[in-house]
Structures are given as structure tokens and as C-alpha cells.
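re: ur question from earlier - yeah i can do the single chain one, its not a big deal. heres the input i used so u can compare w yours
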Amino acid sequence: MKKFLVISSILILAACNTGLEINTECVLKHTAEMVKFENTAGDIEEVFVNLSWTWVHGTPNGDGVIVERQITSDYDSIGYVDSITTLMTFTDTSDLLEPNLAVSYRLGFLVGKSVDYFVTTDFTIPGTQHFVQPDTEFITIDTTNNTLTIEFAALAGFDETDIAIYKTSFTDIDSIINTPIEELLEILTNPLIDTTLTNTIWVIPGADALIETLSVHMIKISSSKMGQLEYITDTSIGLRAFIRTP
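and the output i got, formated as C-alpha cells:
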């Protein structure tokens, strides 16, 4: 399993409820993305945590920003952004990041040999998606009913699921399984069909004409939760590749 933020007391309270941390120096936001690619050869999971921050009172003087992460009892240094700019970013894709894991990140100014910690953010990595059907890479379509049924498990804490089917340029399942998840997400841009569901079953009419035989297709399900102030978006994505057999 591989493993990738103003000032009044009222806003500070809201920030604590959404993952947004605000102080007199910066606005820090996080986005946590949990991606699971289900396949019979072995599921692939990856977590991306993106941190970005901007300065409230102009760019401060300093050498850089140290990024630390806490999973258990102590903070560990995991990165260093060596240039103070208006917008700063850091992405964590550590193998230690897991679904439903509570994490905390802390940022500190480095000026000379002195470190001044100035903001933290605490949140939980989203859970993983699961496909009920299809549950194999090779499917057939009942041309009598001319439908394709996709079913997935409900994900706790998320009310809606975006779901889409893509035709890919891959020629076999092994090639798509061996492609990094980051690349797969980048190429899934033009769906054959998509919708948003509040339940967990999607019956697609006209599947015989929609799904080409022997072509590699990808199903993508995605549930997102936006914080109260609409700065924080945590997302769980599920992927499943399939080929329609004759």
C-alpha cells in the first residue's frame, strides 16, 4: 500500500470544525484524498494530503517553512519548503497515511537556527470506496435487458457519490493496473456517462451501445465532503477497470 489553512474568535471556532486553521500570520488549508483501485490482482491504495498556505499580513521574513506530521504521540519532520513566497504548498504521500487515520500537521518558520511553530491542522483521512458489482475485470452485458448495473457500498459520512464511466486507451488490464494512480486520475477527463447518486446502485440503460466490446473501461466513484467555510475538501475515490467480453 503506497502512500499523497480572519482573525476573530468566531472564525477561529469555525476553523476548528472544518480543518481550516487561521491565525494572524497565515491561512492554511488542507485537502485529503483517499484513492483505492480495486482489482482481482490486489487492491492499490494511495493517500494524498495537500497543504497550502498564504500570508495574511504580507510575506514574512524567514529562510523557509518546516512541515511536521503527528500520527501517534510525537511530531516528525517530513519536509521543508525552502523559499518564502505568497502561496506555499506541500504534498504528503507517505506510505504511513491510511484510510480513517487521524493526523495532525504543524508548520514552523525557520529563521537561522530558530524554529517558530505558527499553525497546526488536525483531521481524519477519508475511508475507502468498495465496489459490489462489477466484482471482476471481465463482464458481459445482458442484451435482452440492455443494462449495466454498478453497485457500491455506502461510505460513512458522505451523502452523495459522483460516478462516471470512461473508455480508456489501454489495451489490457495489466497495463492499467501497472499505471501510477496519479496518472490514471489525470487521464480520466471525458466520461462516456456520469451522474450523482444519493443511493448505491446505478442501472445504466443502453449499455450494449455504450460499452464497446474488448475495450478497457474505468469506473470512477467519488465522494467529497466540504468544510463549513468551503475551504476544505476531503475526497474518497474508488476505481474499477473492466473489459466487456463478447
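Helices lie at 9-18, 173-177, 181-187, 207-210. not sure if urs matches, ping me
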